[in-house]
Amino acid sequence: MFHHHDLKGNDLPRGVVCLTYDDGPGPHTQELGHYLFSEQIAATFFVMGSHAQKQLDTLEQLRNWGHIIGNHTYSHPGLVSLALAHGDVVGELKKTDSIIRPYVISEALLFRAPYGNWREKQPNSDEDRDISLVADILNHSGQFVDYVGPINWDIVAEDWECWRQGISEEECARRYLAETERVGGGIILMHDSSEDEFVRNHNQTMQMTKILVPALKQQGYRFIRLDAVPQVRQAIRESLVASSIGA
User: Fold this and answer.
1) Which of 53, 110, 156, 204 shows the greatest Cβ crowding within 10 Å of its Cβ?
2) Are strands 186-191 and 16-24 parallel, antiparallel or unpaired?
3) Which residues pair with 191 in a beta bridge?
């Protein structure tokens, strides 16, 4: 079941974080997943179907290491624009679903919209509408009864922009640590690949994570799975109830 509002981690107590990675799998995703496993951290990888279909072995390894694999569409479109143009919003999720479903170990399939793009803007305003056309399309399709989304985030320091500009992984990790301390905790957004070939080829998020995780631990942060975040956990419960009623 898709919600009209974003699911975030702002109900978490200070000092608790959840690691999420978008746009993969990339060339270093297996090494990243193994490193996090060795640190006893279960992350969530919101994968693009166009990348994932070429790395099924990576999906299998991530599953075996206890990580969550989520749906991030097949080709990474802005879903609001796609919906307004009468494009195939349902197909973007279904194509990726068929690739990742054998590797999903969570109770529900988790979804994150590319760019966090979920609701139209109000006319003459930077504010989003309360109702999501995308949510309506996906829910009315009846094909995603065991889905939960859209999963948003609380902490981001634009790792993709670091790689675009040639900023070091040490500086990128410092920015993420500073932003985490400013916010206090929540869902952290990072990217283990990109739909942009230049950014994908220069991605250093695996190396950056190896700097960030020890720094967060040194500051006393605790790591939890995405399905343990209160808003996400409640949405999963609601989805399970709805799917059992419809069964």
Assistant:
1) 110
2) parallel
3) 22
